[in-house]
Each structure stands twice: as C-alpha cells, then as structure tokens.
C-alpha cells in the first residue's frame, strides 16, 4: 500500500479535490453546499502527520479508536483541533470520550447513553451525539435496527448532557451502487419517521453517512456529514476491518 500523505501541500490538494467532489455532488442533487460538512478521518495517522493536516486547514478530525484519539488530543493540545469519535464505544471508555470529545457518532444503547450522560454531568460538559443505525442488516456491523433506533431516540431527552444532532450509518461495503444507496435511503427514512413523531427529538436531524468510496452517493441521498479518510490521508497500512467490522 501507499504511504500516507505527509506534506501540507499534499493535504491541501487532497482536501481541495474532496471538497470539489462534494460541491459537484451537491449541485447534482440540487442541494445547498452549506448543508454539508466534511469530517476528515485521521485514524492511524501519527501526530507529526496531523500537524501538517491541521496546518492545511483541518480543525476537526474523526477517530475510530478512543485510546488513539485521546493520545492525539493530549499530544496536539497546543493546536486548535476538535475530536470526533466515530467508532463503536465500550462503556468503560465512556469517561475518556466525555473528557475530550466534541462529537460522538456511534450512540447505540440506553446503557451507553446513561453512562456518557453521567460522566459528562460530572465534568460539567455536554456532547454532540449521533445515533448509529445498522441500515444494511449485516450482523457484523454495530448500530440499532431502524425500528429500535426510533424507539431509542424517544428516550434521549432524559439525558440533558447529550445534544442529539442526528443519525449515523455505515453503508454496505459493495461495488453495487444501488445497494449502497439503499442504505442511505433507509437512514433518511428513519430520520423522517422520528421527525413525524417529534421534530425536536433529533435536533437539526443531520445524516452522517458516506466515506471515501461512497460519499458522493451519500450526498445525493441527503448526507449532512461525510466521513472521509483515505481520499485525504492516503491508503492505510492496515485493513479497514481493523476499525469497521464487516469491511475488508
């Protein structure tokens, strides 16, 4: 595999290319570009490389593993950067997310919501959260079923430290664009179902969906946040299955 991008100039070029693709996809879909944000996913990229990425204009970065994210938060504390945790979280790591994260995109259980809320309350903090939905039906993927997600979201107002921003999903890893697109449509349908129940339950009701291989399709289907790693940072030296169960 290629080595990860390292220079500020390379990061800027890759970031510009991704942003151009985002703009083109938004135009095709007749959408306002201001509704869509890019979350660069910096997993496995060492701190020295991230200093260049931050210099290139990336000031919020997504990480899948809490320990790696916390280390980077500590080692890059001299820079203006916020951290989004986007991978599955065990309850015993909730205290770390409560301490440093600005955003958590994989909320998927009552017990985790309660633990995060309690930790945040003790620190006097709040946290933007997205509910993870398993839209592909794959047993290897984390997230709630669409029906369970709707019921779960109804319980979230009791957790005052959790600021619910919307929903997140990982589409099926497939070259069949229609199968991928269907995952994104399912997430949009869940969002619409919740809105019909109570428009306030999901806050701005954003959809976080789409990664390097499918973010343009996700935008066409309504994504408000696309999580892009490889297209910006280059290929990793390990399989994506290390972070995304079911993805090879």
Q: Brief overview, please?
A:
This protein has 248 residues and is α/β, with parallel strands linked by helices.
Note the topology.
Blueprint: H1 8-28, E1 37-40, H2 47-55, E2 60-63, H3 66-75, E3 82-85, H4 94-100, E4 103-107, H5 110-123, E5 127-132, H6 146-155, E6 162-168, H7 177-197, E7 206-208, H8 215-220, E8 225-228, H9 230-233
Parallel strand pairs: 1-8, 2-3, 3-4, 4-5, 5-6, 6-7
Helix pairs in contact: 4-5, 6-7
Q: What's the helix count?
A: 9
What is the helix/strand order? HEHEHEHEHEHEHEHEH
Helical fraction equals 40-55%
Say how many strands there are: 8
Average residue-wise pLDDT: 93
Low-confidence stretches: 239-248
Largest beta sheet: strand ordering: 2-3-4-5-6-7
The CATH architecture assignment turns out to be Alpha-Beta Barrel
Structurally, the number of domains stands at 1
Our Rg estimate from Cα atoms comes to: 17 Å
Determine the N-to-C terminus distance: 14 Å
Word description of this protein:
41% of the residues lie in helices and 15% in strands. It is α/β, with parallel strands linked by helices and 248 residues long. It has one domain: Alanine racemase (TIM Barrel, Alpha-Beta Barrel), CATH 3.20.20.10. The strands form two sheets. The chain has a six-stranded parallel beta sheet with strand order 2-3-4-5-6-7. A two-stranded parallel sheet has the order 1-8. Helix 4 links the parallel strand 3 and strand 4. It is globular and about 45 Å long.
């Amino acid at each position: 595999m290629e080595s990860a991008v390292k220079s500020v100039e390379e990061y800027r070029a890759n970031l510009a290319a991704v942003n151009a693709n985002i703009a083109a996809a938004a135009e095709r879909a007749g959408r306002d570009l201001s509704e869509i944000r890019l979350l660069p996913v910096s997993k496995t990229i060492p701190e020295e490389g991230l200093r260049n990425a931050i210099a290139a204009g990336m000031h919020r970065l997504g990480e899948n593993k809490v320990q790696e994210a916390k280390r980077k938060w500590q080692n890059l504390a001299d820079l203006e950067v916020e951290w989004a945790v986007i991978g599955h979280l065990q309850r015993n790591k909730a205290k770390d997310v409560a301490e440093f994260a600005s955003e958590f995109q994989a909320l998927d259980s009552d017990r985790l919501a309660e633990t995060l809320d309690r930790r945040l309350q003790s620190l006097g903090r709040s946290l933007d959260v997205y509910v993870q939905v398993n839209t592909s039906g794959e047993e290897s993927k984390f997230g709630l079923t669409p029906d369970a997600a709707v019921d779960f979201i109804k319980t979230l107002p009791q957790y005052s430290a959790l600021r619910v921003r919307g929903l997140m999903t990982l589409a099926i890893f497939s070259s069949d664009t229609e199968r991928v697109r269907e995952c994104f449509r399912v997430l949009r349908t869940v969002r619409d179902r919740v809105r019909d129940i109570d428009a306030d339950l999901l806050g701005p009701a954003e959809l976080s969906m789409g990664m390097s291989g499918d973010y343009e399709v996700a935008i066409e289907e309504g994504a408000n946040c696309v999580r892009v790693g490889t297209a910006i940072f280059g290929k990793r030296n390990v399989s994506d299955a290390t972070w995304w169960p079911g993805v090879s």
